[in-house]
Amino acid sequence: MHLGKEKIESRLQEICDFARHFAGIDPVTQPIPVSPGQHYMMGGISTDIHGATNLRGLFAAGEAACVSIHGSNRLGGNSLLETLVFGKESGIAAAAFAAHASAAPPNEQDLDAAIAPIRAWSRRTDGEDPSALRTEMQRVMDQYVGIYRTEADLLEGVRRIRELQKRFERIRVVDQSTVYNVNLSDALEVGHMLELAEVIVVGAYARTESRGAHFRRDYPTRDDAHWMKHTIAVRGAEAPQLSYTPVAYTRWDPKERVY
Asked: In 3D, which of 54, 201, 47 has the Cα closest to residue 63?
């Protein structure tokens, strides 16, 4: 390599170790594989400045929440704002709510309905492997809902995600243990991820512009006249239901990030 072995191993020792142990390559003589990775979130559960959501008693903070401070791309340091400011606000508000809230009486019927599908997963003698569905979902999202998006790709992406959702209805949990059941927790997580994946694809298809990390090859320009707004998704009977709320700004108009 043009840097030479001595400089690479002295200046980039940690990267060398990662490359050798996890990728099985020597960065002194071989190129290091590069692929996209998720670094942060720019959306989440819609909250007010105190972390309250539209569900009574549910509060969210950090990058799980959307307080509307990021805009179309997160600025450096905003994660600290999410943690220190809104984490504190959410904690105070949640504690105040808990101090005065009355305990809801247990509803055995609702509980039975909620856990019935999970029991069915464990009773099956054959069915889909949740980890395999997760891998397929990752491939679909990478191929059809990646950095550069088009209408055709997004339509194919949502079709494939919905196919995986149908297959998820027939998953099987092999591990029957009741403590530290990673197979069960993985199955629950995959179900939620498939639901969120559909929200992402449907929202990206509806937004006919390019903004921040959302780039449409068929709509390459930013359209403030129609799309200066947040996408809100709620669960519908057949598909996510989308609505929109205006982006809140006062002193400074939003500008395109050009660096």
From this structure: 47
Summarised one tens digit per residue, pLDDT across range 22-71 is 999 998 889 888 877 777 778 889 999 999 999 999 999 988 898 887 76
Q: Do residues 214 and 222 lie in contact, with contact meaning Cβ atoms separated by under 8 Å?
A: no
Kindly report the CA angle at 243 between 196 and 142, in degrees rounded to 5?
A: 30
Radius of gyration in angstroms for the set of CA atoms belonging to the chain, rounded to a whole number: 22
* pLDDT at position 259: 63
- Which residues of the chain are in CATH 1.20.58.100 domains? 109-246
Nearest CA to 5 out of 107, 71, 20 is that of: 20
pTM: 0.83
Rounded to an integer, the average pLDDT of 232-247 is 92
- Pairs from 14-22 (Cβ < 8 Å, separation ≥ 24): none
Q: Name the E strands within 67-201.
A: 148-149
Which option is the CATH number for 109-246: 3.30.200.20, 1.20.58.100, 1.20.210.10, 1.10.10.10? 1.20.58.100
84, 53 contact by CB (below 8 A): no
Strand partners, 241: 234
Q: What is the pLDDT of residues 181-234, one digit of tens each?
A: 999 999 999 999 999 999 999 999 999 999 988 999 999 999 999 999 999 999
Distance CA(61)–CA(48), nearest Å, equals: 10
Alpha carbon distance 16, 224 (integer Å): 45
Location of structure tokens 């449907």: 202
